[in-house]
């Protein structure tokens, strides 16, 4: 121990304490990162642990959705009425047809409905 001085012993103890602090800080940071990753992963796997609860939840959501669709269908059925035919105004930019359609008389669109699709002269009777 002739070559070592008190300063060497003090500096080596400081290095040991710094390395211990670094290990502790690294373990705390890695622990926080791990907990953060777990919190991010939890919402994606809520139903994976309890299959019975998940099945009950989806059954309830499906029945509520089907009930809502049924109520909306009933509402449409009860409030549906024939709409008045709109007056046809012959604007020059509407129904520009440089040539007739290749089917039928050439004046009707492919899926023509005489009650809802007007021709250039108006609705068909």
Automatic annotation (TrEMBL):
PANTHER family: CYTOCHROME C OXIDASE POLYPEPTIDE VIA, CYTOCHROME C OXIDASE SUBUNIT 6A1, MITOCHONDRIAL
Gene Ontology molecular-function annotations: enzyme regulator activity
One Pfam family hit: COX6A
Protein name: Cytochrome c oxidase subunit 6A1, mitochondrial
InterPro entries to which the protein is assigned, alphabetical: Cyt_c_oxidase_su6a, Cyt_c_oxidase_su6a_sf
Keywords, sorted A to Z: Membrane, Mitochondrion, Mitochondrion inner membrane, Transit peptide
Organism, scientific name: Myotis brandtii
GO biological-process terms attached to the record: mitochondrial electron transport, cytochrome c to oxygen
Any one GO CC term of the record: mitochondrial inner membrane
Compartment annotation: Mitochondrion inner membrane
Primary location group: mitochondrion
Family, as annotated: Belongs to the cytochrome c oxidase subunit 6A family.
């Amino acid at each position: 121990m002739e070559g070592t001085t008190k300063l060497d012993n003090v500096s080596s103890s400081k290095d040991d304490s710094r390395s211990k602090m670094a290990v502790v800080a690294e373990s705390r940071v890695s622990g926080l990162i791990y907990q953060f990753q777990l919190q991010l992963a939890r919402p994606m796997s809520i139903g994976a642990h309890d299959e019975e609860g998940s099945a009950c939840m989806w059954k309830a959501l499906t029945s509520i959705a089907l009930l809502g669709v049924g109520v909306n269908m009933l509402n449409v059925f009860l409030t549906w009425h024939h709409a008045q035919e709109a007056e046809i105004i012959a604007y020059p930019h509407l129904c520009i047809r440089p040539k007739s359609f290749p089917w039928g008389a050439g004046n009707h669109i492919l899926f023509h409905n005489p009650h809802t699709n007007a021709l250039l002269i108006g609705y068909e009777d």
